[in-house]
Specification:
Order of helices and strands: HHHHHHHHHHHHEE
Helix content: over 70%
Subcellular location: Cell membrane
Structural class: mainly alpha
Family: Belongs to the EamA transporter family.
Keywords: Cell membrane, Membrane, Transmembrane, Transmembrane helix
Number of strands: 2
Largest sheet: 2 strands, antiparallel
Strand content: under 5%
Strand order of the largest sheet: 1-2
Low-confidence stretches: 283-296
InterPro entries: Diverse_Substrate_Transporter, EamA_dom, EmrE-like
Protein name: DMT family transporter
Mean pLDDT: 81
Length: 296
């Protein structure tokens, strides 16, 4: 596969995931939060498992251990997002979740004690300023939904770091599919404990669940795994940084969410901070002419 085709697949996945906030919000009109997670990831696991059933003829204990861990983290992430969408907009959720790209190097710096680059300091400052403009309202309070989405972004950054470590030891496609199954399983357990599990009772609810399960989760995760073999992590991160733009676009087109001018400036700062954090910049200072050559 050529890199251009792989990057087009990643762009399609980005569009899928940008629409997911809208469909989660629509799904919550007829289902409980845990019920929605159970159906979304349970159906995604069944679809992806049916397509790649031959991959599961052999499974190791190590694969199952990583799958359970990542499935639980995925469950907590989407619990935070689905509860968060009750009190924030799809646009805000998209931009705040995109902070994952900024949090990954920060967590790596804290855990691995690596020296942080200037671009991450700048991108983090831009992102924090953007969050303040996007979410803070007089008298300087933040809605619980915005806070939950930021927590989800932190957890997703942790998820990415663990996946990067786990895929060096186990099959990436098996891991990607099994984590969906365990995320759905945890959703079902919590739905049985705190809700009354049921199927959607409207066409809108079914459309939301099927799009979330098949398009956003099953195909989305499969396309991501396949495409990332043929392009660089930097290009992948840069394309994924477009997710909040699509989230805002879907929110505007289908539920008529309109940002204030302050919110738009904040969203732009968050987006630019995410793009900066995924861009390679190196400079060399030459003693002869004291010039600076930038390479992107």
């Amino acid at each position: 596969m050529k890199p251009l085709k792989a990057e087009l697949m990643i762009l399609i996945v980005t569009i899928f995931w940008g629409s997911s906030y809208l469909f989660m919000k629509l799904g919550l009109d007829s289902l409980g939060e845990f019920n929605l997670i159970a159906l979304r990831f349970g159906l995604a696991f069944l679809v992806a498992g049916a397509i790649f059933h031959r991959k599961f003829l052999r499974m190791s204990k190590e694969l199952l251990s990583y799958s359970i861990l990542l499935g639980f983290i995925l469950f907590v992430i989407f619990t935070a997002v689905t509860f968060g969408l009750n009190t924030t907009t799809t646009s805000n959720a998209g931009f705040l979740i995109s902070l994952t790209v900024v949090f990954v190097p920060l967590i790596n710096t804290i855990i691995l004690k690596n020296k942080i680059e200037w671009k991450f300091i700048i991108s983090t400052a831009m992102a924090i300023t953007g969050i303040a403009l996007l979410t803070l309202r007089a008298p300087f309070s933040m809605r619980i939904g915005d806070l939950l989405c930021i927590v989800a972004a932190l957890l997703y950054a942790l998820h990415i770091i663990i996946v990067g470590y786990a895929t060096k030891k186990v099959d990436a496609l098996q891991l990607g599919i099994l984590q969906l199954g365990f995320a759905g399983f945890f959703g079902l357990i919590f739905s049985l404990l705190f809700e009354t599990p049921r199927l959607p009772n409207s066409s809108q609810g079914w459309i939301a669940i099927l799009v979330l399960s098949i398009v956003c989760s099953a195909f989305g995760f499969i396309f991501q795994v396949i495409a990332q073999k043929y392009t660089s992590p930097d290009r992948t991160g840069l394309i994924f940084s477009l997710e909040p733009v699509f989230a805002a676009l879907f929110g505007y087109l289908f539920v008529h969410e309109v940002m204030s001018f302050k919110g738009m400036i904040g969203a732009i700062l968050v987006f630019l901070g995410v793009v900066l954090s995924t861009t390679k910049m190196k400079y060399k200072q030459r003693n002869l002419d004291r010039g600076i050559n930038w390479k992107n």
